[in-house]
Amino acid sequence: MRALSLPQARKLVLLSQCISTKSLKGSAYSETLNVFERLGYVQIDTISVVQRAHHHTLWSRNPRYQVAHLDQLVADKKVFEYWSHAASYLPMRDYRFSLPRKTAFKLGQQSHWYKKDHKLMADVLKRIESEGPLMAKDFVSKSHKTNGWGSKPTKQALETLFMQGDLMIAERKNFHKVYDLTQRVLPNDVDASIPTEQEYGQFLVLSYLRAHGFGNLAEITYLLKNIKTLASQALNMLLESGDIKRVIINESVYFACCDALFLLDKRLNKKQVHILSPFDNLLIQRKRTQSIFNFKYLLECYVPAAKRQFGYFCLPVLWNGKLVARADCKVDKQTNTLNVIHLFIEPSVNEKETFFTALEEKLQAFAQFNQCNHYAIQKVSSRTV
């Protein structure tokens, strides 16, 4: 059993997550697709004080990323919307592995947050089948009665049909979902066969380990219902076949793909700053982030203003292979300025001048990504332990 130091573990995570690596050759669009297929999913979020999380996460891996890439990938049927641990875009390559969850919803083996109204669901399907792709607002009636087409139940019917696989999201218009029949959205060559339990379990394990470098059962099954036994069985089978091995990190046992450990021989660009989304794949599991990066992080937009320690939308900042700062950011559209309302520096930052030089370069790029002409740091604080 191989032991990895924390610096080695962090390096393995960052390289597996496509962070602090050299840009790939090829078009910016193809690199964006490659990022999707490496990460396995990109979480969708509605908060827009800076560029939305799904765009931000892709830009963090691909400096040439353009917001239009995502719509184009959906139009080209290279990615699709569904659920990972939360609402996400996923690579179409993995479509068949969304089917076990959809089937469970459809058969009532997994509960949905909405109660099924079968008659309303049938009516919704019939309209979309005859009229083509529709948004929730297309069902609004002039009367706006609570039991009419524009009522909350109609949106629930659409979402239920989406979660159980009858509908897919064909596109988004001004961030509103456009629903269509699944058979009209799927590409002709997609594999739509339902995986066996063994295939599904191994997919869950291997996709997580490849994207994150290493993991344990709790991390692999994070916010996924009814699959711990399946994932545990897959871990045992993959250990027996030699596809994965155990590693020790910080006195805890994890699993890693055997070939992933060769990533440790690659170079990590430590001097480049990365400004990350709160919903970034790297740190969405806060307990893991604290354990591996010694960085306790809480997104405080859900915390009452008076109780916030760092601000409404603090973005974690990566540098020198560590999470070293938090930047509470907000775009001012009237002045085209990316405001860093408050920058908090961790005590682990020793070469502050070098760090600030790299940070300012990245902030300028981040401002441009947010369609701002410039940025302004309004306040800086150094945290004490």
UniProtKB/TrEMBL annotation:
Any Pfam family hit: AlkZ-like
* Entry-linked InterPro entries: AlkZ-like
Q: What is this protein called?
A: Winged helix-turn-helix domain-containing protein
